[in-house]
């Protein structure tokens, strides 16, 4: 997961896209003049190549997040490294869902479709190839080797099923959760002080071992 994030950062995909946006003519300018400047073939090829690589990396990142999340939940069910795996599962699930919620991969695939069309038109006008020895695919799904929508649905079902089926919080802390629920019920009818006195949870109770 960390390697994928570092490579995405070093790729500077956002900066490359911002440069491309600055070169694209505005709608008002295109209406005012019959001719207008468009990004050259080398720039379009560079951005398209980075988009392809970014999609590959994000797809790999999602797969790594899913596998690492399932592994951390498995360790939690075995009561191993509770604090570390709780933190890891929270970070991994949040990273996975942020990418899915913002539709990052779907946006990049649709962007590549527009770039591919523009690259084809520009190359027909004036061929100035920059990247040699590589053929840009017309369909990004063929390059990625998977159907993006089906792959995302499969990972989502796997993660949600794991969350529902394991119920690792109840497995780890059943006495504590029952005591907390009882205290919550008593607080509705009793003052806070009396509820704290009747609480059966020891103050020194911890989920891990003491570290000197």
Automatic annotation (TrEMBL):
Q: Which Gene Ontology biological process is one annotated for this entry?
A: positive regulation of Notch signaling pathway
The Nucleolus and neural progenitor protein-like N-terminal domain, residue ranges: 1-115
- Supply the InterPro entries for this chain: Nepro, Nepro_N
Task: Please give an example of a GO cellular component term from this record.
Answer: nucleus
> How is this protein named in the record?
NEPRO protein
